[in-house]
Amino acid sequence: MFNGNSGMVKVVLSVLLFPLFFQEAFISFAWGAGDQLWMMLGKRLFLLLPVFVILLGCWVSIASLTTVLIRQKRVEFLILLLVTWWDLGKSIVSFWGGILKFVLNFSAALVGLLKITCLSILSVIQELLFMPFRLVRNLSQNLLSSPVPWIAVYLTLFWCIIEALIFTYVTTPLVIDVFSNITGEQLHPYFIRIPLFIFLLFIIMGSYAVLSTFVAAIKSKNISSIIGIGVIETVALFVEVVFLYREFVDSLVPWFAQYSENFELGIFGTLAISCFAWFGIRSLSWFLFAAHGTPLLMQVIQGKGVQLFRGAEAPKVRLISISPEFVNKIKEETSWIMTKGDELLASLMLPPLQVVASGINFCTLLLSGSHLFELPFNNMEAINDTRTLMDNLFRRGTRKKVAEKVSEKSPERTPDRIEESELIP
Predict the structure, then answer these.
(1) Which tens digits make up the pLDDT trace of 255-265?
(2) Is-above-0.70 flag for pTM?
(3) Is 48 buried (19+), middle (13-18) or exposed (0-12) by CB count in 10 A?
């Protein structure tokens, strides 16, 4: 390239175009086309970007040095050029160290993520194992602190179901005989027991409803209601004693006969024992829980809603809830993942961006005599948006011009003492 030129011109061109002597070799070495795969990837990762920025710095430095003769404050400009090379050197070293730092952070993040995954799985298993116990505890708290007598309601329903099951078992043979005589076919017990259980459950719940209405009528001292409901209660007593409790007493006759000789229980004895059994069972269940559970069930069935007893407002407890420790763990792990993600992103982006910013500083130094970026980048917040960068560059240029004019008029005023309002053109 320089063979056709004279000696002085050749020297000048060699000085001005000195990057041509080594840039091709640098790029070929950094590209590593003929090397092994791992060597080629290492060179392209560690050397390719720094080589391009160094070559850019060389060409821009040549162009900058050629403009020194026409610039003011040449010494300051040369110092800025040297500082730019110093920033480039630090950025390259930070780039190499940043790659190692990113690998270490990424490895630590993987280990932490694996740990969080294992702990999360264990926590979920623990929550699933202890959820039934927590459900029972919350249900107990709701039942004990609620102004609604839910325990009485549940006991009333439970007792009605138990009584219906007992009488279903006792009266099934009688019902099968009745239907077999009517239809002429022998029916299977399982075909009879389910509808018989539902029918008896309604009969027993209706018996408690009649008893509750009878007690309410007595409390209100309404004679006509007492007489009317008393007749209905008598009929309910007769139906239950004849069709249910009589069968129950008949099933106990073999037990009575086992401990006595020539035992005979007539119709009056059977009905008397049945009446006493009905009265005893109804009295015990009524005074224990049915007196409070039956009125509430009747309100729900009638669509009147649940009327709460007066009292202090009970705290509401969710039946199915997640333990606060589990929620706090999820929040801490989520916060850790977000923080670690920001650290990984910063360790991945900042090292190459600092090298690129050093190359851009060479160009802005040539064009405006100042740097666009302030290096080094300590975190992602140090990377300003484009508008902020342009405003900062404009302010630095304006401050420089104003400082020159003010210094000409008032030599004692330094650029640091110039007010911000004086920067507005």
Answers:
(1) 777 776 666 77
(2) no
(3) middle
